Amino acid sequence: MFESALAGIKVLEYCQMVAGPYCAKLLADLGAEVVKIEKPGHGDEARKRPPFPNDVPDAETSGLFLYLNTNKLSITLSVETETGRQIFKELVRGADVLVEDNAPGVMKKQGLDYEVLKELNSKLIMVSITPFGQTGSYRDHKAYPLNVFQAGGEGYLTPSGVENVGRPPLKVGSFLEEYDSGLNAAIAVVAALYWRTSSGRGQFIDISKQESLISLNRMDVIVRYANERKLLTRAQQGVPYGGILPCKGGDYTVFVTWEERQWDRLVSMMGNPEWARDEKFKDHGARFKHGELINALLMEWLVNFSKEELYHMGQAHGVPFGMVSSVEDLVNSEHLRARGFFVEIEHPKAGRLRYPSAPYKFLLTPWRVSRPAPLLGEHNEEVYCKRLGYEKNQLVKLREAGII
Amino acid sequence: MTLLNGIRVLDFTAHVAGPQATILLAYLGAEVIKVESRLYPDVLRSTAVVAGIGTKKTALGMFTSMNAGKLGVTLNLTHPKGIELAKRLVKISDVVVDNFRAGVMDKLGLGYEVLKEIKPDIIMLSASSHGAGGPESGYSGFAVTLGPLSGLSYITGYPGGLPAVLRNSIDCRMGNAAAFAILVALCYRQRTGKGQFIDLSGREALACGMAEVIMDYVMNRRIRSREGNRDIFMAPHNCYRCKGEDKWVSIAIANEQEWRSFVQVLGNPAWSKEERFSDQLSRWQNQDELDRLIEEWTIERTPYEVMEVLQRVGVAAVPSFSNEDLFHDPHCRERGYLVQVEHPEAGPLYVLAPPWKFTATPAKVTRPAPVLGEHNEYVFGTLLGLSREEIAKLAADGVFY
Fold first, then answer.
1. What local confidence, expressed as pLDDT, does residue A289 receive?
2. Is A2 a residue whose pLDDT tops 80?
3. Alpha carbon of A380 to those of A103, A304, A376, A399, B27: distances in Å?
């Protein structure tokens, strides 16, 4: 029997959609007990978001929701009422961590801000995840995932390449920026848990999605302007040669040859073509200047091979090739399958499906799913009766009053 | 008072992914000792110059940005005495991190099986592009190749256009996953006294960033491709050209109320009352035309002006911030997202502040990145207790090189 790394940690989640729920999921999948608070009747907004099996919307089968809420318990609770707020406080008394993603000021308006909650539980770690943080001029600004990505500095440079100048900057085609923010918050929570054990003290943590994204571009984007007044644009940000190029079958390959020896190996892999001996391509600096010409010559050779062939052949020759994988390639990857990256989870409404797991393999405390995402309010009785001591008939009254 | 007070991290990482993990641990208060040598310095010290993307100052700025807050030693791991000293450092450390290709630490004689004999409760994380097991383990990867391999490039780009090359952020995402896993292992060790090994795959860290796309394939066999900035429901939902050179603002509208507020700010133009824009679905269906009309309005204004007038009425409008915008941005300044460190060669350099605001234990940037071997004396003298003579001899023998 394996142990859980975060066994015994009790997390209260008062979040919707992606970033906050992802933060709590990261903890839940490593053994923390997460109680998710959802709005009575509606639940988390993610329940309304696709994908749904066979594209049939159902609040219990959103693939987004199912993925983000594995291992959690769901209760319904409305904090719009005084009774609801009292119940919320009872839950906070027994929690180690509260994760919330409401707009700044909302918790305070309900009398549930950190200043109030810490009086009930001095060891509470409370993390708030918002687009721009709890302070500063934009704290009340609204931002959907598209806006969040553009707020972080990376959007302005996406997609890179001079050919894209004049076209709108893009976001990555998933909720990437939201997962990024959730992970950044989870880092802070676990660090605070570590310190709490030694100090006995909780604290409040303010997470800005914008800063979460900016920090992923710490190497060059921000500091190059700050230190050198160097404005980066899409025009200068392409890969000078190599990068993503078309190959056989309308697919795309990708490779880089940052090192001279990688270039030499590539030339040998192509069978030492005549053109590669040209002075124009003699070193990285020279090739840098003739990227377009090199790519045209490379493509003549690349189109003879499939992306898979190039990927494995390149790696065998010591040239860092990858390939542009579709989601189908990903799910069917022999490598990911061998590593057990996809795991089957049985859900009472959605059935048995394969889910992505996690990028880390712990020797003693593996990532695992012991329960699928909860149905809306599935654990009301478990949490309200068994833990908070409510009678079953009281639950009926709370339900009638729209509180749970 | 720091969060990771007393935690020591022995850091064999270089380039971006590993250093991102350890810079976060350094900001949280761990003592991070970066191991390099003159034979194998972190390539990031010179990448900018070698690759022709900037000057010496660029290189120093980039290296500092990834390695501020860490200590640095030069230890020659090709010398048997170098390995012996590395093991002595393991004995006084809590965490060991590397981002070599899978298997390299074993070859050096510094694999987990060896290290746990030296320090039974050591936490070791090996971060590699493809992970430590599976048929492609040992394949090499860089940000440019891993973004596409993970599936993210396939879904990023203009409709019908090329998949997008993603930035160095790709490596940092992997570093964040590594930092999280290390912190979790520290919590477990705190409770049980047990260390452990963690195998981290960069490619998988990135694939987790498109989980809903994977679920759509698993549920419906749908292969999502490049759709520009299009959302499944929202329209308008795009970046719009503004006044100035290469200036853009992102606008996303999720419901009827936001739409009404939006068109009111635009002065309720005649087109906004047309049937083809009368509800969310019709707007979604006619969004290309809608985008063109909206751009006629945004082009007359700066991104900041658009943000101001739209946010005032509760519409999500945010400029597509360039690095120049972010440097001058009032909100970012108020939040203190940049701090300066004094570099011995470059003078004052900006680095990013930690991306979390803790009330009780603020995370801080305590020092610049180390120059090569800057802390040999502290680490080998003070921590390991070697005498000046021993240190001088080891340096002469090429062990500290």
1. 86
2. no
3. 26, 60, 9, 10, 40
pLDDT of B119-178, one tens digit each? 999 999 999 999 999 999 999 999 999 999 999 999 999 999 999 998 889 999 999 999
- What pLDDT digit, counting tens, does each position of B55-111 carry? 999 999 999 999 999 999 999 999 999 999 999 999 999 999 999 988 899 999 999
Determine, for residues A320 and B145 on separate chains, whether the beta-carbon distance falls below 8 Å. Answer: yes
CA distance between the termini of chain B: 35
Which domains are seen in chain B, by residue range? 8-209+336-396 (3.40.50.10540), 237-326 (3.30.1540.10)
Q: Quick check: A61 pLDDT over 90?
A: yes
Q: How many CB atoms lie within 10 A of CB B136?
A: 23
ipTM here: 0.98
Q: Specify the residue for token string 């501020």.
A: B68
State the pLDDT at residue B67: 98
Mean pLDDT of A286-311: 94
pLDDT at residue A200 in the model: 96
Which pLDDT does position A24 carry in this prediction? 98
Q: How far apart are CA A368 and CA A360, in angstroms?
A: 11
Nearest Cα residue to B25 out of B368, B354, B375: B354
A30: contact with B, CB 8 A cutoff: yes
- Residue B248 reports pLDDT greater than 90: yes
At residue A1, does pLDDT exceed 70?
no
Q: What structural domains does chain A harbor?
A: 10-155+177-217+341-400 (3.40.50.10540), 239-325 (3.30.1540.10)
Residues paired with B252 in a beta bridge = B237, B316
Rounded distance, CA A325 to CA A337, Å? 15
- Of B224, B207, B238, whose CA–CA distance to B156 is shortest? B224
A99 φ/ψ angles, rounded to the nearest 5 degrees: -110, 125
Task: Please report the pLDDT score of residue A210 as a whole number.
Answer: 98
Average pLDDT over residues B183-211: 98
Substitution target in A30, A218, A347, A357 with the highest count of B β-carbons within 10 Å is A218
Can you list the positions of beta strands (E) in A209-341?
243-246, 252-255, 321-323
State whether residue B26 sits within 8 Å of chain A by CB.
Answer: no
Structure tokens at A364: 């003693």
Q: Which residues of B are identified as catalytic? A: 171
Which residue in the block uniquely carries the two structure tokens 């990013």?
A: B352
Cβ separation B156–A158 shorter than 8 A: yes
Q: Do A150 and B57 touch (CB under 8 A)?
A: no
* Residue A381 distance to chain B (closest CA, Å): 30
Give Cβ neighbours of residue A389 (< 8 Å, ≥ 6 apart). Answer: none
B145 in A contact zone (CB under 8 Å): yes
- Residue numbers in A near B1 (CB within 8 A): 199
Rounded average pLDDT over B337-351: 94
What 3-state class would DSSP assign to B127? strand
In this structure, is the dihedral angle defined by the CA atoms of residues B310, B314, B319 and B323, taken in order, positive or negative? positive
Q: Is A219 on the interface with B (CB under 8 A)?
A: yes
Q: B-chain residues within 8 Å CB-CB of A193?
A: 187
Instruction: Give the torsion through C-alpha atoms of B99, B104, B106, B110, to 10 deg.
Output: -60
Q: Could you tell me the sign of the dihedral formed by the alpha carbons of B267, B273, B279, B285, in that order?
A: negative
